[in-house]
Amino acid sequence: MLKFYYTLAPNPRKVALFLEEAGLPYDAIPVDTRKGEQHTPEYLAINPNAKVPAIVDDDGTQVFDSSAVLLYLAEKTGRFLPAPPMRGELLSWLMFTASGIGPYTGQAIHFTKYAPERIAYAVQRYEFEAWRHWRIIDARLADRRWMMGDDYTIVDMAVWGWGKSASTALGENCWERLPNLKRLLDAIDERPAAARAMALKERYSFKSEMDAQAREAMFPHMRSKAA
Question: 3-state class of 62 per DSSP?
Answer without folding.
Answer: strand
